[in-house]
Amino acid sequence: MTIISVPTDFNEEDLYVDLRRIVQHSLFLKCEGFNFAGSIKLKAATEMVEAAEWIGVLKPGSILVESSSGNLGAALSLIAASKGYGFLCVTDSRCNLSARRFMEAMGSRVHIISEPAADGGLLGARIAHVQALCASDDRYVWLNQYTNTDNWKAHYRTTAPAIARRFPQLDVLFIGAGTTGTLMGCARYFRTLQRQVRIVAVDSAGSVTFGGRPGRRMIPGLGTSVRPALLDESYVHEVVHVEEPDTIRACHRLARRGFLFGGSTGTVVSGATQWLSRHEDQDLTAVAIAPDLGERYLDTIYQTNWLHDLYGEDVLNPDELATDLTA
Predict the structure, then answer these.
(1) Does the domain formed by 7-34+150-311 have CATH 3.90.1170.20?
(2) Which fold has domain 41-142?
(3) Residue 121 pairs with which residues in a beta bridge?
(4) Over the stretch 240-298, which tens digit does the pLDDT of each residue have?
(5) Separation between Cα atoms, residue 96 and residue 70, nearest integer Å
(6) At what angle do helices 149-157 and 41-54 cross, to 10 degrees?
(7) What positions does the domain Tryptophan synthase beta chain-like PALP occupy (predicted)?
(8) Which DSSP helix (H) or strand (E) runs through 184?
(9) What letter would DSSP give residue 170?
(10) Are 159 and 185 spatial neighbours (Cβ–Cβ below 8 Å)?
(11) How many CB atoms lie within 10 A of CB 267?
(12) What's the CA angle centered on 236, arms 15 and 241, to 5 degrees?
């Protein structure tokens, strides 16, 4: 029996899904969404908050403020409610309605940015708004997930060691790239182990993280319009870019087998499948990290009208539409 008194005390660390029968490759998916925040972001949020408390930046009466596309905001809203802080999430229209409602249910406020910055897009505009808030009132505390080293340290301390324990013969690890906290924490950990683990970053097409051209991105989570300060490409062996229709197809393929995952997970699975298809001649032990579950995407990725309006009616083939998505 597990009994807890605060929501951050529970996080399922050792659940993996064997995806072989779904993606036709040997791939183990590490599920990170089974906690009260619903995503891997609870780890980084907890680490950053506790570090800020330790050095005295965060104290009674403080108001946390953060730019987030959804999952980190949800995690911070949960922590703020548990600890008695205020929280204001600065996001944009791509943030899922369910994530916004989750934050508001926790007593947090959500501010939506609608106009992109000339340099940096919507993310740049979100960051500028956060900076203006902090300049206007010293009660606001910005943990800044984009530059905060406690972001990657959370995964160096928890996520990566958990994988290393379960897969001592690991060959390749697929990690989605957003702020690159998970990516950098895991990559740094495996570098210190001096094990020959290939680190493959999975990014969204249209993201500038690895020097690509900026483009439209409608699925929140992975990808950025401003290069993450945490990123050190010397730790990354390869990068796979995934188009959003491929993310959607991966999500639906998993859902048709009973696994409802979020957009970030669909991107990682799609990228991993593409990479493994190019290395079929090798006998590899491969793990991919699933950052989120799918409930927050029911009104978007799993909703027919949203899909057709943005990607056209042929975004899913008949096999992936085996059941009525509107039912």
Answers:
(1) no
(2) Rossmann fold (3.40.50)
(3) 117
(4) 999 999 999 999 999 999 999 999 999 999 999 999 999 987 889 999 999 999 999 99
(5) 7
(6) 120
(7) 21-289
(8) helix 181-193
(9) -
(10) yes
(11) 32
(12) 80
Query: How many angstroms separate the CA atoms of 87 and 141, rounded?
Result: 9
Angle between helices 159-166 and 149-157 (to 10 degrees): 20
Tell me how many helices (H) and strands (E) the chain has.
11, 10
Fold: same for 7-34+150-311 and 41-142 = yes
Domain residue spans in the chain? 7-34+150-311, 41-142
Which tokens is 123 given? 């993310």
Burial of 77 (0-12, 13-18, 19+ CB in 10 A): buried
Structure tokens of 325?
């998505």
Which residues is 65 bridged to in the sheet?
88, 142
Q: How far apart are CA 294 and CA 311, in angstroms?
A: 19
The closest alpha carbon to 204, from 144, 149, 271, belongs to 271
Residue 231, judged by CB atoms within 10 A of its CB (0-12, 13-18, 19+), counts as: buried
**Cα atoms in the 13 Å half-sphere on the side-chain side of 121:** 19
Q: Read off the pLDDT band of 320 (50, 70, 90).
A: low
Can you give the pLDDT at residue 256? 95
Nearest partner of 94 among 226, 208, 220, judged by Cα: 220
CB 51 within 8 A of CB 150: yes
Give the CA-trace dihedral at 182, 214, 119, 264, to 10 degrees.
Answer: -30
Q: Amino acid letter at 230? A: L
Above 60 in pLDDT, residue 226? yes
Query: Residue 312 carries which side chain, given as an amino acid letter?
Result: G
